[in-house]
Amino acid sequence: MTTAEAVKTNTVEEQAKRAKKAAKNLSILTTEEKNEALRTVADALETGYESIISANLIDLKNGEEKGFEQAFMDRLSLNKERIFDFAEGLRQVAELPDPIGDVMSRWTLDNGLKVEEVRVPLGVIGMIYEARPNVTADAAGLALKSGNAIVLKGGSSALNSNKAIVEIIHKALEETRIPKNAVQFIDTVNREATKQLFTMKEHIDVLIPRGGASLIKAVVENATVPVLETGVGNCHIYVDSDADAEKAINILINAKTDRPAVCNAAETLIVHEAWLNQHKELLAESLKKHGITVHGDESAAAALPDVKPATESDWANEYLSLDLAVKTVKDLEEAIDHIDQYGTKHSEAIITENADTAKKFMQLTDAAALYHNASTRFTDGGALGFGAEIGISTQKLHARGPMGLPALTTRKYLMSGNGQIR
Amino acid sequence: MTTAEAVKTNTVEEQAKRAKKAAKNLSILTTEEKNEALRTVADALETGYESIISANLIDLKNGEEKGFEQAFMDRLSLNKERIFDFAEGLRQVAELPDPIGDVMSRWTLDNGLKVEEVRVPLGVIGMIYEARPNVTADAAGLALKSGNAIVLKGGSSALNSNKAIVEIIHKALEETRIPKNAVQFIDTVNREATKQLFTMKEHIDVLIPRGGASLIKAVVENATVPVLETGVGNCHIYVDSDADAEKAINILINAKTDRPAVCNAAETLIVHEAWLNQHKELLAESLKKHGITVHGDESAAAALPDVKPATESDWANEYLSLDLAVKTVKDLEEAIDHIDQYGTKHSEAIITENADTAKKFMQLTDAAALYHNASTRFTDGGALGFGAEIGISTQKLHARGPMGLPALTTRKYLMSGNGQIR
Fold first, then answer.
1. Nearest residue in chain A measured CA to CA from B375
2. Number of H helices, E strands in chain A
3. Nearest residue on chain A to B343, judged by CA atoms?
4. Integer Cα distance of B50 and B324 in angstroms
5. What's residue B341's pLDDT?
6. How far apart are CA A142 and CA A144, in angstroms?
7. Which ipTM did the prediction report?
8. Bridge-partner residues for A326, per DSSP?
9. Of residues B1, B58, B359, the one with CA closest to residue B195
10. For the structural domain made of B18-229+399-416, what CATH number should be given?
């Protein structure tokens, strides 16, 4: 490590320490103090949007020179409307109920000791994300509302945009009760800096990775700080022998094509062989009409036109495109076994008119969200009415499915006595 | 790796797979089916207690030959009464409310999609523990009641005792609706076997280490499977300038001496210098009377007799003995800073007659359990009325403080529709 790098890596720890200290002050602010601060930041982002756009242009130019693909450039790109959307998002978070201070339960022991279980902030959130600069404002807003400090480590391709956003946030926070140190932005692109966050247990209470599968894997495998795992969705639609054809096809097409690049989009159709044989023409026509490329097993290839042979990687892949894997099964058990083997425990749907089959599927399939006769696209904090979300948890501990403000909290037991001993 | 080892390490994965499969069948049993099974196991442990004692004698003989210390041998040692206590423990778990299937919330979207948030088992619990054979029966009981399969990896010093207990559990389960594969016991003492559990994300949903600090550290640092961190308690009693002397001393002595070897025992007295000066004779007398060895800072040494100079390691140490570190402070802030630096976020107490000071302490100190004018010894599932506990979480994610049955569960969102798409 060169001296310059050593200085930089020390800086990350200093930043985390400052966040920890700020978190303590933040944890005791009132709801109105936090809301007022969020509205102040929102106004400042609107007033200062031009500086963000200027910085974003530099990132876009760098990205073009590096030949990033179009979808990536789209995620990176900002304009006035998008920045005003960040601001509006912060104002919406200000409107959400404040989870902090909620007394979750309360009782008194026989000896008179009073016990209260109270909701408190986690402390310091480490957010590791990729190109989308909107995460900078969104994550900061959710963290601050729930009384947490945040250490932001965004992708290097959005460095200038993120810096411009954080600069505005910092300046705005100076006029509020929230200490500006509660939002730390790591502006080095040195990889050691990110790795330092993985093991900074003393200063960081939770890491939330948001981005592609390889980012999430790197964090899960290397972090000793607890992780809230988000996002990878290899979601299945199982069309049962008792499925209504119109519902099945509508839901499949919606789940596959509405927004193919999001995690709650469907990637694999599991279809009962009897249903497939009966409805293959209708299915083939719909798939063709919507430009879907099919990767299927032998039975699928026999029933449908233009099927590419599916390999192991097709079953495991989150395509995030108009590709669809098609697996044919003889019964519900085979469908569930396939999901057990390849699913990512995100969102799984069954289409059937048979209530018993649906019940079994929902009981025996292990995922955050199970659907009967509806599209997997509803696994989303906004769609389900959570107000806002910091990500979709695919793990089972702490939070599962869309994570709203309560996922950024923990509890304390407060015991008040007058000398009780055991 | 030799062939024999290869076979053994393969076996661990096979065992975890069998547990995963059993978990699926277990998750849909009724409460009565699970309770009936627990009572059957309890009866079998009582009927078969002699075989456990015989096996335990072998472990004790091996332990003596290896020269294990007395406290360790005590934890290892079983007798008829202790085994009947295991059985009674299982019957008590059968009496507890079943968390599985609880509808935690329920709502309907504007489009008619019905949403239910339902409590479900985690799946497979990996329990890694040290010498206490009671954990084998206790952990299996809590896991099964909450619909989870369990993979048990106990300390090698209790191998024979644990095997005898599991043999009885397995034989008893054959007469019940719980598949015997739901309880897996890893009977190899090969270290690779334990390490395999650390990364078996496909088959194991959570690891719970129970034992000393080094075991817990090894699991936290090496596991990619999510961990429920338990137990290390470097707990402080802060005696404020406004503390009532009698309450302060009673609570301190209770927290230090009632059971010095448990995690909710006090390890450090933080004392306001004004209080110390006023009450030093009374404090010195009590400490002496209870055989407490004091490791203190300079001010403590000036005020109290026979004080050994405290070093950095005294502040960080979980003594688990009649040793006590004594830190003198000028104010509340210094006390909280000390706890922030050295505490393990387990249990912290303030003794004061000043309600404002107490409130500040409870707001600003980061721990699972905060006490005002009471002993830290109440941080315990039994004492707080949780019915039973699988451990005391010192982490913030998922569960904090004493963990009862709900800590062994997660949730599913179940969505029922009639063709809803986005």
1. A421
2. 16, 16
3. A202
4. 41
5. 95
6. 6
7. 0.92
8. A269, A296
9. B1
10. 3.40.605.10
Most A CBs within 10 A among B396, B403, B408, B409, hence the mutation to make, goes to: B396
CATH number, domain A3-229+398-416? 3.40.605.10
- 10 Å CB burial of residue A245 (0-12, 13-18, 19+) is middle
Give the model's pLDDT for residue B25.
94
What is the per-residue pLDDT across A159-196, written as a single tens digit (0 to 9) for each? 999 999 999 999 999 999 999 999 999 998 777 888 89
Angle between helices B80-95 and B49-65 (to 10 degrees): 120
Q: Is B6 on the interface with A (CB under 8 A)?
A: no
CA–CA separation, B238 vs B325, rounded Å?
12
Exposed, middle or buried: residue A233 (CB in 10 Å: 0-12, 13-18, 19+)? buried
Give the whole-angstrom CA distance, residue B368 versus residue B259: 20
Q: Which of A374, A400, A415 sits opposite B371 (nearest CB)?
A: A415
Q: How far is the C-alpha of B310 from the C-alpha of B325, rounded, in Å?
A: 7
Q: Tell me: the pLDDT tens digits for B276-299? A: 999 999 999 999 999 999 999 999
Asked if the C-beta of B379 comes within 8 angstroms of chain A's C-beta atoms, the answer is: yes
Which two structure tokens, joined as six digits, stand for B231?
A: 């137990």
Helices (H), A270-354: 273-289, 298-303, 312-316, 332-342
Task: Give CATH for domain B235-380.
Answer: 3.40.309.10
Quick check: A161 contacting B, CB < 8 Å? no
Residue of A nearest to B379 (CA): A413
- How do the domains of chain A map onto residue ranges? 3-229+398-416, 235-383
Q: How far apart are CA B118 and CA B103, in angstroms?
A: 5
In this complex, the residue of A247, A362, A398 whose CB is nearest that of residue B414 is: A362
Q: State how far Cα B110 lies from the chain centre.
A: 44
B369–chain A nearest CA distance, Å: 5
DSSP summary character for residue B227: B
Range A235-383: architecture per CATH: 3-Layer(aba) Sandwich (3.40)
Q: Is the CB of residue B315 less than 8 Å from the CB of residue B361?
A: no
Query: Which among A265, A260, A273, A274 has a CA at the least distance from the CA of A329?
Result: A273
Confidence of residue A296 (pLDDT cuts 50, 70, 90): very high
pLDDT single digits (tens) A235-256: 999 999 999 999 999 999 999 9
From the list B354, B161, B125, B381, the residue with the least C-alpha distance to B247 is: B354
